[in-house]
Amino acid sequence: MINQRSLFFNVDWILILIYLSLCTIGWFNIHAAVYDPLFPGIMDMNTNYGKQFMFIISAIILGVVILLLDSKFFSTFSPVFYGITLLLLVLVLIVGRNVGGNQAWIPIGSFRLQPSEFAKFSTCLILAHYISSTTLKMNEFKMIGICVILLLIPTSLIMLQPDTGSALTFTSLVFALYREGLSGYILVIGAILITLFVLTLVINKFLLVGIIIGLMLLVLFVFRESRRHIQPILVSITVGIAFIFCVNFAYQNILQTHQRNRIDVILGKLDDPRGQGYNLNQSKIAIGSGGLWGKGYLQGTQTKYDFVPEQSTDFIFCTVGEEWGFVGSLVVISLYLIMLLRIVNIAERQRASFSRIYGYGVASIFFFHFFINIGMTIGLVPVIGIPLPFLSYGGSSLWSFTILLFILLKLDSNRMGVI
């Protein structure tokens, strides 16, 4: 039997070093983002950077506790974790505090708990638990349906807050399902629908309908001698046209005004640098002004004079770009890419399907946050308000990402055993 000591020292220390490096980089950049000369100490508890230091220490302790637990604990109690987070998501709708238009936080004294962050690791666990314990195949309708339901419940509750950014995070778990056998056609269809969604917003809908019909008729002409292609082509035309009009309806009647404006800014349909495009405009200025080497620690003018809103949370990467420049930004991005590749490598070397599925879930969540957060600060995607893992200020997000990562580290440390 492998003893607990050997399991503890069998963890992937490269991943732990990357984790500690990102937490440290985040701490210093939060200090730079909200630096107050009246509270110059980097560990002053009256400031966000002082509080973040305590969050980091408590997160490390939490990580150590996870490594000391039995690996079977996480697979056995996956449904319990999932149930608890669902209850918290319901509770936040009743007693939660509304901040910035989102009722997403439960006040606990001076601390605010954000249940949507913890729903990420519990959903990864329940997916891994269900898929690894059933005899159904991923290409079976029942299997896909149950997985969709497991994802849809927390997503729907989070949308009621409403917190679109956190809700969209769960869509990334489709990559974990794909690794387990989900048809690649579903990913292709998803990519086509996303492309069609964007085209619907930038091209007149009737012109787009005409283009789709024209392309399908061309394909139909090419395959005119094969009758089996006629029905799928006609169905595709019908679905495509219906989707276009659904997008227009949803865009005008379901999305809130500020959400539509953020999308319009990215698509170039709205030029409002002092209004809806202010955050993005100031973000680009801050990152671009850093140049190659940056302005230096605590020397960022955009940062110092509070030009960029939410700079210690959603827009923390602006501080990296302005004060550490292209080189510093490249270092941070490289750390994330190495971390992602390391997580995928860890997932692939697992002997237990539960551990592998969970590992790909972790990789999917981290990739989504990394790509979307940095993408929105440089204008590649709309601003949807999600944190950058380990860098953004916040106890809930830091603890959630720490739990996600360290459960995987624990499972990996015991991969030679039976989970």
From TrEMBL:
InterPro entries: Cell_cycle_FtsW-rel_CS, FtsW/RodA, RodA/MrdB
Source species of the chain: Arcticibacter svalbardensis MN12-7
GO MF annotation: an example: glycosyltransferase activity
One Pfam family in the UniProt entry: FTSW_RODA_SPOVE
Superkingdom of the organism of origin: Bacteria
Segments passing through the bilayer: 7-30, 50-69, 76-95, 141-160, 181-200, 206-223, 230-251, 324-345, 357-384, 390-409
Record GO biological process: cell division; cell wall organization; peptidoglycan biosynthetic process; regulation of cell shape
Tagged with keyword Transmembrane helix: yes
Location(s), subcellular: Membrane
GO cellular component, one term: cell division site
Keyword entries, A-Z: Cell membrane, Cell shape, Cell wall biogenesis/degradation, Glycosyltransferase, Membrane, Peptidoglycan synthesis, Transferase, Transmembrane, Transmembrane helix
Main location: membrane
Protein name, per record: Cell wall polymerase
Membrane topology label: Multi-pass membrane protein
